[in-house]
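TA notes, week 10

Several of you asked for a full example with nothing omitted. So below is the full record: structure tokens for the whole chain, then the designed sequence directly under it. When grading your own attempts, check the secondary structure regions first.
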């Protein structure tokens, strides 16, 4: 959906995937209720607390690279050595292809020619950056900022910024000079299963970081939860702010809660 690139993690540096993937699997398993309907593979994964697949050998990775005509980035190669593919990658992505089935995107379905509606574009664009912070990536940015041949467009060449671009700009203003302190999601962090959050110390003046805040959003749908006891205000991506209610309504569009 998003034309983007992640910085040093994927360009030239390997990454220790196993601890992260173990945490991801555990959080996914903990987010499921005992009565939730699951297939046999999902139930096995829940009990094993592991969403991965058997690891790929160097020979399998090399064969994939020869088939695709390009050597893969170090981080992707390390991922495949831990798990040759992945289940439940979030949203509507139920399976990431492994070495046997990975292929170049060719847009046969015409998906790249189908723009998102503004609300969904705002959700995806801002969560793209927030998930990068959750994963502790060093930098993230969009390709095709000036193009229109992708579903999510921030600003076409010669045109005004889209709603998604304005929302990303608001997010950047919120977090200018801020320091991230923690991230988490689901029951193990005291949240509803589909809620994600990152906590920050905001910069209340240049060079001074002291104001605590949390950004929350859902992976899908809407969730309600009690407000933090010291919650002061809820800021939304359209630039508005209101006193924090006793019960927070968290949606797929991130909100900033000042504490």
């Amino acid at each position: 959906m998003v034309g983007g690139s992640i910085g040093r993690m994927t360009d030239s540096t390997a990454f220790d995937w196993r601890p992260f993937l173990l945490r991801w699997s555990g959080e996914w398993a903990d987010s499921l209720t005992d009565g939730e309907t699951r297939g046999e593979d999902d139930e096995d994964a829940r009990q094993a607390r592991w969403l991965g697949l058997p690891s790929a050998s160097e020979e399998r990775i090399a064969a994939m690279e020869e088939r695709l005509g390009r050597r893969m980035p170090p981080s992707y190669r390390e991922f495949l050595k831990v798990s040759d593919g992945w289940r439940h990658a979030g949203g509507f992505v139920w399976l990431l292809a492994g070495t046997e089935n990975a292929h170049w995107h060719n847009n046969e379905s015409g998906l790249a020619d189908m723009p998102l509606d503004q609300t969904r574009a705002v959700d995806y664009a801002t969560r793209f950056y927030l998930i990068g912070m959750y994963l502790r990536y060093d930098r993230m940015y969009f390709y095709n900022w000036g193009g229109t041949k992708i579903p999510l467009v921030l600003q076409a060449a010669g045109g005004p910024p889209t709603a998604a671009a304005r929302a990303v700009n608001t997010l950047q203003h919120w977090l200018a000079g801020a320091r991230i302190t923690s991230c988490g999601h689901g029951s193990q962090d005291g949240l509803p299963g589909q809620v994600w959050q990152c906590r920050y110390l905001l910069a209340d003046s240049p060079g001074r970081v002291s104001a605590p805040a949390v950004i929350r959003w859902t992976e899908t749908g809407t969730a309600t939860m009690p407000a933090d006891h010291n919650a002061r205000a809820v800021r939304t991506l359209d630039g508005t702010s209101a006193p924090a209610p006793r019960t927070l309504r968290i949606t797929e569009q991130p909100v900033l809660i000042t504490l």
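Residues 118-134 form the longest helix (17 residues). Use that as a sanity check on your answer.
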